[in-house]
Amino acid sequence: MGECYSIAGQHYGVHATEPRSQRFANVIEHPADSRGIVQTAPGRLSSVTMKITVILCTYNRCQSLAKALDSVAAQTVPEPVDWEVLVVDNNSSDQTREVIEGFRRRYPGRIRYLFEPKQGKSHALNAGIREARGDVLAFMDDDLTVESTWLQSLTAALDDSEWAGAGGRTLLAQKFTPPCWLALAGPYSLGGVLAALFDLGDKSCRLTQAPYGANMAFQKKMFEKYGLFRTDLGPSPNSEIPRPNEDTEFGRRLLAAGERLRYEPSAIAYHPVPENRIQKDYFLAWWFDYGRAMAREWGRGPDILGIPRPYLNMLAIATTTMVPMMRRWLLALNPQQRFYWKCFVCMSAGQIREFYRLARCKDTRRR
């Protein structure tokens, strides 16, 4: 089995843990499905049934949610597999509840509803993890669709202790011609920001980078061992919380601990291209927030000779990272390269801002 190496523009970082809560709200229960022998990989059977929960968190996207649920409900999973879809409503104000209730009636015993009133994607994800019945947890977003074999392909290897988790292949849902400044392939690709694109080829391999939350799965015991998703990262109404990295930080946490993650190219999901993202301002704001998230992952660190470590980090980023990237941005002739390096300058600015906050907050704690 080969190695999958990081591509330019992907994420890096370290980890933290989070205290657990026992609070649940408005959980609609259903009886479990059948149990038996499940095919776990081509030519190999296990006598222990794999129990899977698909966790789908949603907030005010009732139209795209209906398409996502249509696709996941149509999964072709071996009959003995015990699987469910747990939809976590993160305090939506649109017709989200009505959409989910309609699917519950169409697929009795398959769809469950969980209301999480505390807004923030990490809160919704963690509520789903606590409530999940499965030993394997698969995650998908509410604005994508998946192929009918997605769940089986993504989770087949996870009944084996060799693999802690897996990431699938996420492609564009429609034909799209990007503007001249935006690369979706190659070393200057920004496809991960545009539509959570994750495509490392058509061969399975061991991952050396964290998969994206739109299309990934983990053994549930990984959350019991390493903690839940960090609530000081990820989409939230609180602008002080950086929007990226709540998903990839957990994957990096596992990789740093020596756990093995697998790339499954046959676990295919399709992500649309949101119109509001095809703007330079969107990418620059995302990269600034990504820089904040990276610095928050690293944390404050110990002081050096009485000097707060974040101040030293700010100096290092400004001199060894930001200045060279500004030079590349200003001198690049290719518009895709030029914009790519401009994004990295924004990322460095975000790191500096977050390290300044950490330096000013001596008693910073991870929530």
Gyration radius (Cα, Å) is: 21 Å
Largest sheet, in brief, is: 10 strands, mixed
Per CATH, the class of the largest domain reads Alpha Beta
CATH superfamily of the largest domain: Spore Coat Polysaccharide Biosynthesis Protein SpsA, Chain A
Q: What portion of the residues fall into strands of 2 or more residues?
A: 15-25%
Q: Please mark out the parts with pLDDT under 50 across 5 or more consecutive residues, or reply none.
A: 1-47, 363-367
Series of H and E elements = EEEEHEHEHEEHEHEEHHEHHH
Query: What would the CATH topology of the largest domain be?
Result: Spore Coat Polysaccharide Biosynthesis Protein SpsA, Chain A
Mean pLDDT: 87
Using the alpha-carbon principal axes, give the shape. Answer: globular
Bin the helical content: 25-40%
Task: Please report the distance between the alpha carbons of the first and last residues.
Answer: 38 Å
Tally of individual helices: 10
Overall number of strands: 12
Number of domains: 2
Please state the structural category.
Answer: alpha/beta
CATH architecture of the largest domain: Alpha-Beta Complex
